[in-house]
Amino acid sequence: MNKILTLIKREWLIIAGGVAGAAGGYLYWYFIGCNSGTCAITSSPLNSTLYGIVLGGLVFSLFKKNKKNESGN
Question: Which residue ranges make up each domain of the chain?
Answer without folding.
Answer: 11-62
